[in-house]
């Protein structure tokens, strides 16, 4: 017995008689203006695209669950990290590449985004990190310039080794992250096979008001795996969506990927006097000094029902913090607190937080006095000003941030200078010999193709400052004279 099919309706709910033949004035006549269904269909189609993310445009996402294994209430009052072993919080993740557009091949050398959204009982908590523990720059003023150098040349519309190396060679703080990116981790085998990092130092506050600095680490339980440059290039030519497919297929086959969640915990005063500035996101805090503490794990176990609804419309922001987690004075983080929601208001519209994927699970709208704007919905009947005598929502003083001291003169400080290189040198020395060899090969095939001799010299000089052997090997691979590298 065949099921009765749903009938076609217009967006306004009217029955739709013909979805194949336009209304014409006679058999050979022009199409009629009266064909409102044709006009609506074309008009809606014409508006299907929204702006892609200005960075991290290409990505894959899934839903899952975070499970707490260790009560962290000694360090933070954040509900998600407080309670009994086994406490669950729903979440979603989106992994991405940074520089390519939405259709770019997945397997090109790039940092990968590692964005997590936890739907906690205190609202949404986002950790918007990468698959590397550090970043190229540490001041938000430099971010648009950095990204311009990664994206397309305004004249040729081509991506350019000249532009990116020009920027990096004049930004010595990038040396550590460049050494990561040009190493094996610049080409992960899949999104499932990479670790994630919150990268910045964040502030945890417990119920007694004590402050700890923390750094997040997410360890893949699938094992860290990378691919060779030759394999990556081959796949890029055959399957541009290799990573999206890999994640989707694994979840579809119930092979759910899992990451363990760890934090480094740094007591407040010790953090303020650490051997380098812990708010400089171009550096790591040694695990020998502050070892990893296990917090829990998360598992991705549900593919999107609809990619656009569940992944493209997902809006992450480092400003999505919950009581118990606060921003640190890391300047790059401070800049990010503004940029994401601003980008999302532009990309998705002012009411983007009402979209199902972004809607907090703990709040029934409306819960504040913001109103209207494009695509407002479910506003209901509620007083729209405060103070009021109408039983509108009131402040929750328990959510106040922990007050902190600031001092000094307002100025444009070069806060994190001058140690740009020691961390890059330590990373180079950490690489096994074979990885060092691949790193030099990669630098030869990227930096080596740059037109400007000065760029090559400046960049190689950075590597030399990081580690003499590192610089000497790059110079040799690029055919540069060491007297120029040692120059200044
Ligand atoms: C001042 C520095 C930075 C600025 C201004 C910035 C800005 C942005 C903007 C505007 C977006 C697009 C947001 C959207 O349309 O939804 C974005 C996406 C993203 N950024 Fe940043 N970013 C910065 C640094 C960083 C750093 C340091 C990390 C990692 C540690 C990072 C990780 C990400 C990730 C993972 C995404 C993609 C989120 C998603 O999957 O939707 N960004 N960034």
In words, what does this structure look like?
The chain is an alpha+beta fold and about 500 residues long. Among the domains are: about 60-140 and about 185-350, Catalase HpII,  Chain A, domain 1, CATH 2.40.180; about 420-485, no CATH class. Helices cover about 30% and strands about 15% of the residues. Strands 1, 2, 3, 4, 5, 6, 7, 8, 9 and 10 form a ten-stranded antiparallel beta sheet that branches. Strand 3 (about 110-120) and strand 4 form a beta hairpin. The longest helix is centred in the last third of the chain and has 18 residues, at about 330-350. It is globular. The model has no long low-confidence stretch (mean pLDDT about 95). Bound molecules: protoporphyrin IX containing FE. The site of protoporphyrin IX containing FE has 29 residues, from strand 2, strand 3, strand 4 and helix 9.
Strand residue content: 15-25%
Oligomer: single chain
Give the CATH topology of the domain at 59-138 and 187-349: Catalase HpII,  Chain A, domain 1
- The top-level CATH class of the domain at 59-138 and 187-349 is Mainly Beta
């Amino acid at each position: 017995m065949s099921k009765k099919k749903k009938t076609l309706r217009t967006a306004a709910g009217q029955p739709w008689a013909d979805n194949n033949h336009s209304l014409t004035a006679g058999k050979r006549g022009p199409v009629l203006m009266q064909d409102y269904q044709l006009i609506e269909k074309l008009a809606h189609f014409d508006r299907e695209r929204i702006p892609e993310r200005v960075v991290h445009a290409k990505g894959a996402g899934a839903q899952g669950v975070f499970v707490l294994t260790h009560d962290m209430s000694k360090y933070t009052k954040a509900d998600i990290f407080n309670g009994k072993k086994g406490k669950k919080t729903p979440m979603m993740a989106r992994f991405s590449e940074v520089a390519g557009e939405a259709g770019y091949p997945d397997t090109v050398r790039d940092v990968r985004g590692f964005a997590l959204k936890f739907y906690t009982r205190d609202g949404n908590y986002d950790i918007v990190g990468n698959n590397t523990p550090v970043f190229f720059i540490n001041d938000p003023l430099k971010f648009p310039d950095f990204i311009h150098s990664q994206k397309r040349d305004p004249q040729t519309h081509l991506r350019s080794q000249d532009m990116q190396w020009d920027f990096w060679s004049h930004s010595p703080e990038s040396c550590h992250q460049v050494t990561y990116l040009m190493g094996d981790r610049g080409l992960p085998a899949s999104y499932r096979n990479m670790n994630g990092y919150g990268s910045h130092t964040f502030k945890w506050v417990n119920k007694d008001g004590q402050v700890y600095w923390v750094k997040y680490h997410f360890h893949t339980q699938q094992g860290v795996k990378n691919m060779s440059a030759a394999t990556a290039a081959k796949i890029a030519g055959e399957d541009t969506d290799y990573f999206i497919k890999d994640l989707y297929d694994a979840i579809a086959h119930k092979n759910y990927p899992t990451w363990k969640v760890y934090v480094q915990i740094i007591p407040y005063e010790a953090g303020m006097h650490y051997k380098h500035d812990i708010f400089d996101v171009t550096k790591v805090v040694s695990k020998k000094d502050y070892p990893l503490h296990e917090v829990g794990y998360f598992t991705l176990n549900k593919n999107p029902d609809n990619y656009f609804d569940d992944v493209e419309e997902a809006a992450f922001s480092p400003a999505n913090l919950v009581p118990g987690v606060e921003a640190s004075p890391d300047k790059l983080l401070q800049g990010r607190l503004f940029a994401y929601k601003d980008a999302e208001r532009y990309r998705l519209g002012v009411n983007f937080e009402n979209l199902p994927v972004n809607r907090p699970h703990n709040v029934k709208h409306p819960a504040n006095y913001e109103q209207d704007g494009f695509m407002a919905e479910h506003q209901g009947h509620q007083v729209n000003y405060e103070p009021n005598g109408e039983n509108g929502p009131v402040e929750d003083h328990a959510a106040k941030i922990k007050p902190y001291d600031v001092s000094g003169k307002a100025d444009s400080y070069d806060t994190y200078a001058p140690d740009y290189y020691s961390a890059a040198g330590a990373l180079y020395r950490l690489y096994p010999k074979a990885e060092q060899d691949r790193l030099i090969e990669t630098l030869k095939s990227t930096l080596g193709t740059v037109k400007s001799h000065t760029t090559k010299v400046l960049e190689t000089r950075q590597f030399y400052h990081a580690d003499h052997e590192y610089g000497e090997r790059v110079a040799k691979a690029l055919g540069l004279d060491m007297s120029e590298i040692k120059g200044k």
